[in-house]
Amino acid sequence: MAEYDESAYKLARKAYIEHSCPFERALLSRCADCSRSRRLNLAEREAIACGDPAVREHCLAFYRALHENAQFALKINPAAPWPFGKEIRAQCGGVRGLAGAMGGAADATTDIAATVLQGQQRFGGSADFPYSEIMRAVAHYEPRKRRS
To answer: Where are the domains of the chain?
Structure first.
């Protein structure tokens, strides 16, 4: 059996996906949805691309602000890479927390792009989002357990 070449996969992914989705892990874990995302299959893996580069910039700003604010809530060293479980908690809890702060459905049906755009209309910019409420959702979000 031939070994899997991770670097070749990363090169193919970079060539095939023009605009990556900052919330790809949340979408792949199916804790949220996005009307602007495109699902792709690359080398027997599923990947997510963003179909709207203009909206992606808003999502990316929210993603960065989430990481900045979640460091304390998730007890993360700013210099260390984010563990997978805490990344899922930040992405899923963050999107659901923003939806909940606006009185929307904070569940797997939450549309990430629509929620971020509504948040910007309501609060101004991603820097003005109610992060105290959002961080409560991040801290309380529990990823689904692995199947044994």
So the answer is: 19-140
Q: Residues 6 or more apart from 85 whose CB is under 8 A from it?
A: 143
Q: Which residues does 24 contact at the CB level (< 8 Å), separation at least 6?
A: 47, 48
Helix residue spans in 50-141 (DSSP H): 53-73, 84-101, 112-123, 131-140
Residues 73-129 have pLDDT tens digits of: 888 888 888 888 899 999 999 999 999 999 988 888 999 999 999 999 999 999 999
Range 4-28 burial, b when 16+ CB lie within 10 A, else e: eeeeeeeeebeeebebebbbbbbbe
Determine the Cα–Cα distance for residues 39 and 32; give it in Å rounded to an integer: 14
Burial of 52 (0-12, 13-18, 19+ CB in 10 A): middle
Residues 26, 88: Cα–Cα separation, whole Å: 6
